[in-house]
Amino acid sequence: MVSIIVAVAENGTIGDKNTLLWHIREDMIHFRTITSGHPVIMGRKTFESIGRPLPKRTNVIVTRGDNEFEGCKVAHSIEEAIAMFPAEEEVFIIGGAQIYEQALPLADKLYLTIVHHPYDGDTSFPALDMSEWSELSRQDFEHGEEFEYPFSFIDYERKK
Ligand SMILES: NC(=O)c1ccc[n+]([C@@H]2O[C@H](COP(=O)([O-])OP(=O)(O)OC[C@H]3O[C@@H](n4cnc5c(N)ncnc54)[C@H](OP(=O)(O)O)[C@@H]3O)[C@@H](O)[C@H]2O)c1
């Protein structure tokens, strides 16, 4: 099973200059809770932005190059990355924009964090056709412990 997990601003922005635009402690914990114990697949730029393999997860870096990344597996396409794991295993696509764009048609599930505030940035999530997705659960927050804007965790599955 292929899942996408992303935090996206209300105007679609997900990053700028190869970094994130916000720090929401609750969202970091949400991401860690959902992905721990599962494989995570990411583009080479997102890996460089994080700077280290995420612990307690098999990290797969997608690149067209022939570099190796310490503590990580390497795949040369998204399909190759997904095929490293049994179909019943939930694998998480964790970005960035190039990888989300290509993986979206392959995804069965979406874990969206929506930040209810617009951000300027150079990287956006691809447009979603919400008629293809059913909402499974939703949690709304007026703000975080140290984050001033509202945000929501919304999980979707692809309609059969
Ligand atoms: N808000 C969020 O939830 C979230 C999550 C993740 C990332 N981000 C943000 O997204 C931004 C990075 O996204 P990005 O789009 O610039 O980069 P990216 O998707 O992380 O990585 C792009 C790289 O992936 C490789 N790649 C892409 N398609 C491939 C394919 N079909 N086959 C093989 N390799 C392929 C290429 O690596 P090579 O150049 O090595 O060939 C390419 O340069 C950052 O700002 C980051 O902070 C946000």
List keywords for this structure.
160 residues, Dihydrofolate Reductase, subunit A, 32% strand, binds NADP nicotinamide-adenine-dinucleotide phosphate
Describe the structure.
Helix 2 links the parallel strand 3 and strand 4. Helices cover 19% and strands 32% of the residues. Strands 5-4-3-6-1-7-10-9 form an eight-stranded mixed β-sheet. It has a two-stranded antiparallel sheet with strand order 2-8. It is α/β, with parallel strands linked by helices and 160 residues long. The protein has a single domain, classed as Dihydrofolate Reductase, subunit A, CATH 3.40.430. The model has no long low-confidence stretch (mean pLDDT 97). The chain is built from four helices and ten strands.
List the helices and strands and how they pair.
Elements: E1 2-9, E2 13-15, H1 25-35, E3 40-43, H2 44-50, E4 59-62, E5 73-75, H3 78-82, E6 91-93, H4 97-103, E7 109-115, E8 123-124, E9 133-141, E10 151-158
Parallel strand pairs: 1-6, 1-7, 3-4, 3-6, 4-5
Antiparallel strand pairs: 2-8, 7-10, 9-10
Bound molecules: NADP nicotinamide-adenine-dinucleotide phosphate.
NADP nicotinamide-adenine-dinucleotide phosphate (NAP) binds near residues 18, 49, 78 and 99.
